[in-house]
Automatic annotation (TrEMBL):
It is a multi-pass membrane protein. It comes from Neovison vison. Keywords: Autophagy, Membrane, Mitochondrion, Mitochondrion outer membrane, Transmembrane, Transmembrane helix. It is found in: Mitochondrion outer membrane. This is FUN14 domain-containing protein 1. GO terms for biological process: autophagy of mitochondrion. The gene is FUND1. GO terms for cellular component: mitochondrial outer membrane. It holds the Pfam family FUN14. Belongs to the FUN14 family. InterPro entries: FUN14 (IPR007014).
């Protein structure tokens, strides 16, 4: 059971990952072409300012969420220990799903 669900999850993860990478890469490529051709002008200083602001917000939220994340990790570790056969089957199936 764990192997089958792992394979399905791995296969879907692979397909969705490729689709997402293609969409993001294609969007970035189109934006660069439009910028280079003069259709779009990008204010890089503003982009840098916004990225730095987002980084600060992420760091602040990550520090607040750390105890909650540790609790989730402990619960997941305990679940894996109690269900080692299904968990190992899931991991093996997941890796096979990624490879196919």
């Amino acid at each position: 059971m764990g192997g089958v669900t792992g394979w399905c999850a791995g296969f879907l993860f692979q397909k969705v990952g490729k689709l997402a990478a293609t969409a993001v890469g294609g969007g970035f490529l189109l934006l660069q072409i439009a910028s280079h051709s003069g259709y779009v002008q990008i204010d890089w200083k503003r982009v840098e300012k916004d990225v730095n602001k987002a980084k600060r917000q992420i760091k602040k939220r990550a520090n607040k969420a750390a105890p909650e994340i540790n609790n989730i990790i402990e619960e997941a570790t305990e679940f894996i220990k109690q269900n080692i056969v299904i968990s190992s089957g899931f991991v093996g199936g997941f890796l096979l799903g990624l490879a196919s």
